[in-house]
C-alpha cells in the first residue's frame, strides 16, 4: 500500500532538485558543449518520469472519466523515460570520457537494440499487460515480465561503469569523472522501489545522481577548450605525466599546425578564424578512433595522441586526416580553405621527458611546414618569423 504523503514529499524533493538544475542550464551558467545537451535531455526525462510516477500514484484507484486510460499512459511514460535516460547516460559518459563524436555514434548504434526492445515491449504491453496492467477498478499491478525493463536499465548502468575501465586500460584518458556518483544512487533507488512496491525512490535517486554529475561537470570543463570543445593543454600535460610515470608503451603523437592561419584572420576576420578552429576540431574528431585523443595545444596548433602497436597505423591516420580536410575543402561554403603541417613522434617514456616528446613533434611539424612554404614559393616559416 502506497503512502501518498511520503511519495509526495520524496518526489517533490526530486522535482525541486531537477528544476534547480534545469534553471542553472537555462541561466547559462555553463557553456554549450554537446554533452550538455545530453545532460539537459536527462534532466527533462527525469522530470517527466518523476511527474508521471507521482501522478500515477495519485490516480491509482481513482474513478472518473478516462482515469484508467490516463493511468496507463502515465505508467507507460515512466517505463519509456527510465530506459531512455539510461541510454542517454551511457552516451554522456562515452562523450565525456573519450570526447569522440565518431566513437559515440558507434556506441549509440550498439546501445539502440536494448532501447528498441523496451519500447517494443512497452507498446505491446498496452494490449497484453505482461509488464504491468491496470485493472478495471483502475489499480496498478505488476506483470510477469516486469523485470525486463529493469534489466535493460541495469545493463546501461553497468556498461557506463565499464567505460572508465576501458579508458584506464587504454592509458591515454584520465579518469576525470566517476560514473559511480550517478550509477550508485540510481541502482540503489531502483532496487528498493522494485523490491518494495509502494515506495517511490527511483526518480528522486536519479535527481540526486544528476546533482552529483553537475558538480563533476565544473571540474571536467577545466580540461576542455571552450572554442574547439576538444581537450586542452592542461589535459595533455596530465596525460603525458601519467604516461611517463606509468611507463606506458606504444604512445605516438602528431603535432598539427594550420598553414596560413594568420591569413584567415587577416583576410576574413577573427570570427572566421574561430570558425576555422571549430571546423578543424570536428575534422580531427572525425578522423580519430575512440582510443585516440584530439587536443587543442595552443592557438592554431593541435595534438593527436594515440597508442599504436603497429607503427603503420600512424601514416594511415595522417592520410585519413588529409582526406577529411580535402573533402571539407571541396564542399565548404567558407571563404577560406584549410591545410595542415603535421609532425609525428614516438613517446618512449624510458628515454625522453614529456617536454622532449613535445619538442620532437614540434621539430618534425616545422620540417613539414617548411616544405609547405617551399612548395608555394616562399621562405620557410622560421625564416619568415625571424626575417632571415
The coarse overall form would be elongated
Mean pLDDT: 86
Count of helix runs: 13
Contiguous low-pLDDT stretches (5 residues minimum) are 379-388
How do the strands of the widest beta sheet line up side by side? Answer: 4-5-3-6
The secondary-structure class comes to alpha+beta
Ends distance: 87 Å
Rg over CA atoms: 26 Å
Compressed to H and E, one letter per element, the order equals HHHHEEHHHHEHHEEHEHH
Please give the number of β-strands: 6
Q: Main β-sheet, in a few words?
A: 4 strands, antiparallel
| Percent of sequence in beta strands | 5-15%
By oligomeric state, this entry counts as single chain
The amount of helix comes to 55-70%
Task: Tell me what you see in this structure.
The chain has about 400 residues and is an alpha+beta fold. About 65% of the residues lie in helices and about 10% in strands. It is built from 13 helices and six strands. The strands form two sheets. A four-stranded antiparallel sheet has the order 4-5-3-6, with helices on both faces. A two-stranded antiparallel sheet has the order 1-2. Helix 1 (about 5-25) runs parallel beside helix 7 (about 200-220), helix 3 (about 65-100) runs antiparallel to helix 4 (about 100-130) and helix 4 (about 100-130) runs antiparallel to helix 5. The radius of gyration is 26 Å and the shape is elongated. Mean pLDDT is about 85; it is low at about 380-388.
